[in-house]
Amino acid sequence: MTQVVSLSYAQYPLTKKIGNDTVVIMTIKQGEQINKSFDEYEEKVSKLKDTITTLKNTLIDGKKHYDSSIGFVKSEVNEYKWKYEENKRIYLKNEELFYKTHNTDILQKISLAIVVMFLFFKLN
């Protein structure tokens, strides 16, 4: 049983302390395995970075040509024109609503003033 433990422990690099320094002792096979793992991981990371870059570019190109809120394809210039016109339409609609509310408020105040004046002259 103790040999199994020592054999499985021998698979990992050993560390020895010499003075204030720590030295890692490993076999050539272990070093090659570690280097191979690093190369494989570096290749995987490189491929993932390339995939992410490709997906980002695809997404940016798609945003330039498609707007899901209106549901059709349009060019970048038309997009800004459309946004400007839509903002202008909303602004004018809100202005119209404000003036209607404001005019109604003034009309109510004038009506109240007339009623108060009528009651004042009726009492005198």
Describe the fold and architecture:
The chain is mostly helical and 124 residues long. The protein has a domain of 50 residues. Helices cover 76% and strands 11% of the residues. A two-stranded antiparallel sheet has the order 1-2. Strands 3-4 form a two-stranded antiparallel sheet. A hairpin with a 4-residue loop joins β3 and β4. It is elongated and about 115 Å long. The N and C termini lie far apart (119 Å). The model has no long low-confidence stretch (mean pLDDT 81).
Question: What's the helix and strand layout?
Answer:
Layout: H1 2-9, E1 14-18, E2 21-25, H2 28-65, E3 66-67, E4 72-73, H3 76-123
Antiparallel strand pairs: 1-2, 3-4
User: Residue-averaged pLDDT, rounded?
Assistant: 81
Strand residue percentage: 5-15%
Query: What string, H for helix and E for strand, traces the elements in order?
Result: HEEHEEH
Report the helical percentage.
over 70%
Number of strands: 4
Number of helices: 3
Global Rg: 40 Å
Structural class: mainly alpha
**The biggest beta sheet, please?**
2 strands, antiparallel
pLDDT < 50 stretches: none
Inertia-based shape: elongated
How far is the N terminus from the C terminus?
119 Å
Strand order of the main beta sheet, please?
1-2
